[in-house]
Amino acid sequence: MNKQIRQNIAFTVFRLLSLAVVGILFWILGFITYKGIGVISWQFLTTAPTDGMTAGGIFPAIVGTLCLIAGSAAVAFPLGILSAIYTSEYAGDGKVVRFIRIMTNNLAGIPSIVFGLFGMSLFVNTMGFGDSIIAGSLTLGLLTMPLVIRTTEEALKAIPDTFRQGSYALGASKLQTVSRIVLPAAFPNIITGLILSVGRISGETAPILFTVAAYFLPQLPDSIYSQVMALPYHLYVIAVSGTDLEATRPMAYGTALVLIAIVLIINVSASIIRKKLSKRYA
Amino acid sequence: MNRTAEKLAESLLTVSGTTTGIVILLIVFFLFKEGAGFFHHNDVEAGYALCVNGENAVKNLSSGQIKDIFDYETGNWKEVGGADEEIVPFRVSDIINMYQEAELGENYVLLPEKIGETIAKTRGIIAFIPVQYLPESNPEVRVLESKRLNPSDFFMGKDWMPTATPAPQFGLLPLLAGTLWVSLFAIIIALPLGLGVAIYLAELAGERTRNLLKPAIELLAGIPSVVYGFFGLVVLVPFIQKIFDLPVGETAFAGSLILAIMALPTIITVAEDSIRNTPQSIREASLGLGASHWQTICRVIIPYSASGISAAIVLGIGRAVGETMAVLMVTGNAAVIPHTLFEPVRTIPATIAAELGEAPAGGIHSGALFVLGCILFIITAAVSVGAELISKNKYKNI
After folding, report:
1. Entry pTM
2. What one-character DSSP code corresponds to residue A128?
3. Euclidean distance between CA atoms A132 and B98, whole angstroms
4. A14, A88, A263: which to substitute to probe chain B, counting the most B Cβ within 10 Å?
5. Mean pLDDT (whole number) for B173-194
6. Scanning every residue of chain B, which has its alpha carbon at the shortest distance from the alpha carbon of A82?
7. Is there a contact between A282 and A189 (Cβ–Cβ < 8 Å)?
8. Exposed, middle or buried: residue B381 (CB in 10 Å: 0-12, 13-18, 19+)?
9. Core-most of A62, B129, B177, B258, by most CB within 10 Å?
């Protein structure tokens, strides 16, 4: 009986803890939504900030973040996916593979500010790109590369070997097997991984601090060498360093809500796509 | 034709695989190259020199001693190994008070001469002057040797004052203490919560609860750190200030709370995986002996998955140590060694983020920030290797 009571107490505690975690999530989401929803309007989303960031909108920051997503996807996706195909389908278990694996594991753990440091030193200063979309995209691209490689590798590993053997038995070559059998079957999971890495890119602040982000730049970028504003950096500057913090608060709530909404949409669409596509290939 | 395509594809893949590896090596190389550059700087600001009267017995001063002298904390040469003489700190700007502008000549051509005179007639002087105004011909003036920065000053230094003149102070200890302080308390807060949720998810929750809880945790991991920082700034900081009646709410405690929330998803996911991996047979054996489900969990399953849970803790610490934006926004950024949780602190990543923008490229300050980057890199690499080793050790103690 005693044993039963103790079990009940313990399990109740665990339930409450789980509730607390969900509670924290809803607290954060709810608070930002409650404070920010009043600010969101068509005008907020489509105009530049004015009056020392206390009015206007966040359009240049949204455009900047989209540029950075596109740029870093262009850097990370091809190289990451090809590397993952190489390591999991072609390379066997040689030295090169072990080297790449150790390196990507290490890379995945490096704090994002260190990427910012590296990006500033190599892309901005040594290669002379200055603060620009290209420097920021290369930095963010490197940051997401481990995520892309790992999710792609996992997607490829999840394809049973019988698929490959069946293809070889029909006389297909390695390239044919990989491109017509393995990749299509792994496609849903690869896409999910890519979408999640876009989510990561859109929220990162530390790597873009010194490689691309502009404090205030109402005009839109005209080349890959221009500086841009970006949503997370914009939220940071108006949260901590505005001239009139009280007056910029509503703008900050609005920006935070837009950022959270992007992350939410990306997460939800990733799981929907995974479900839809895996049904088709199952 | 087909063969060529095969070969082409294979070499393309090989090239991209190798490129990835090389790029990563490049990152490490660059980081450490820039970091090593820091130790090639001298302790006195570049382009300046320290001069004393020729009769002064002191040959050289450590960077900490120079700072204390110019902060008027050290007042007598006796304290730094010289004669019993009052120290007179002197900067170039002080010369303006002593001479009329006309006396210094056109474009200050007479400035070195006048500085020389001043040094010659003040026995206890220590003058901080730009090298182009150095009165070299004056025999009464002796230039103090400036030394290479000493790694032990960096790693054991207790002051972080990168913009102090004449001798900027780069002491790692306050930053390291701030980082560890904030991260450890974050884990202490997050661990019971995370472990409880992990057990609930792995052992108790039904399929439907899992399907609700799992995405919630993923979402918690997906929220950008700057949003956490903002939330901490507008909600937690004022709250902490009010509850504990503090002068400022931006404290190590606020940082720990935010980091605890941010480390939760990592801890939950890794711990849940390892609890879930406990073999069914072990579980059934315990239940078969008449143990309750709770007894099985705390006497059998948790000890069995201890290595996985430790890995979760280590990875959680790794996540907390490297976190930048949220911590930068809520901890108050005072580079002093903290004594309680309710003081402002500054962590290593926050220092890099806050100072890199104003540190000139290639200078001593940015060099110091790169050394901080290397230290972060080493800590996180050690964390990932450590976590790997711990989880490899799995079955040894059973």
Report:
1. 0.88
2. -
3. 49
4. A14
5. 92
6. B13
7. no
8. middle
9. B258
Which of the residues in chain A have pLDDT under 70?
A: 1, 242-243, 280-282
Looking at the fold, whether B145 and B258 belong to one and the same domain comes out as no
Q: Do residue B105 and residue B146 come from a single domain? A: yes
Q: Total structural domains in chain B?
A: 2
Domain residues for B76?
Answer: 48-150
CATH of the domain at B322: 1.10.3720.10
The residue among A11, A271, A28, A48 whose CA lies nearest residue B264 is A28
Q: How many CA atoms lie within 13 A of A189 on its CB side?
A: 18
CA–CA gap between residue A219 and residue A173 (Å, rounded) = 52
Per-residue pLDDT tens for B197-256? 999 999 888 888 888 888 889 889 889 999 999 999 999 999 999 998 888 888 899 999
> Is B160 within the bounds of a domain?
no
Residues of B in contact with A204 (CB under 8 A): 224
Q: Please, what are the domains in chain A?
A: 40-280 (1.10.3720.10)
Shortest CA gap A157–chain B (Å): 17
Report which DSSP code applies to A228: B
pLDDT of residue B373 exceeding 60, the answer is yes
Place of tokens 């509730």: A19
Question: What is the rounded distance in angstroms from the CA atom of residue A186 to the CA atom of residue A184?
Answer: 5
pLDDT attached to residue B360: 82
Residue B165 maps to a domain:
no
Cβ of A120: how many Cβ atoms within 10 Å? 25
Q: Cα–Cα distance between B86 and B125 in angstroms, integer? A: 8
d(CA A282, CA B240): 52
Q: For residue range A233-250, what is the model confidence (pLDDT) as tens digits? A: 999 988 887 667 778 888
How many of the other CB atoms lie within 10 Å of CB of B118? 21
Q: What are phi and psi of B88, to 5 degrees?
A: -115, 95
Let me know if A97 is exposed, middle or buried by CB neighbors in 10 A (0-12, 13-18, 19+): middle
Contact partners, residue A36, CB within 8 Å, separation at least 6: A253, A254, A255, A256, A257, A258
**Residues A201, A69 contacting (CB under 8 angstroms):** yes
Report the C-alpha gap between B129 and B146 in whole angstroms: 13
B200/A112 touch (CB, cutoff 8 Å), yes or no: no
Same domain (yes/no): B256, B366: yes
- Give the nearest partner residue to A82 out of B16, B30, B226, using CB atoms: B16
Assess if residue B97 is contained within a domain: yes
How much is the pLDDT for A1?
Answer: 58
Using CA atoms, how far apart are residues B208 and B206, in angstroms rounded to an integer?
6
Dump pLDDT digits (tens) for B335-358.
Answer: 788 888 888 898 999 999 988 888
Residues B306 and B205 in one domain: yes
Determine the angle formed by the axes of helices B252-276 and B173-199, rounding to 10 degrees.
Answer: 40
**pLDDT tops 60 at residue B107:** yes
Nearest to A86 among B14, B26, B323 (CB): B14
Q: Distance between CA atoms of B84 and A70, rounded to whole angstroms?
A: 68
B241 and B361 housed in the same domain: yes
Which of B150, B183, B200 is the last residue before a domain boundary?
B150
Report if residue B378 sits inside a domain: yes
CA–CA distance, A281 with B17 (Å, rounded to integer): 28
- Mean pLDDT, to the nearest integer, of B91-114? 76
User: A203–B9: do the CB atoms touch at under 8 Å?
Assistant: no
Phi, then psi, of B48 in degrees rounded to 5: -125, 160
Q: Do B20 and A100 touch (CB under 8 A)?
A: yes
pLDDT digits (tens, 9 = 90+) for A126-160: 888 888 999 999 999 999 988 899 899 989 988 88
pLDDT in the model for residue A282: 52
CB pair distance less than 8 Å for B383 and A109? yes
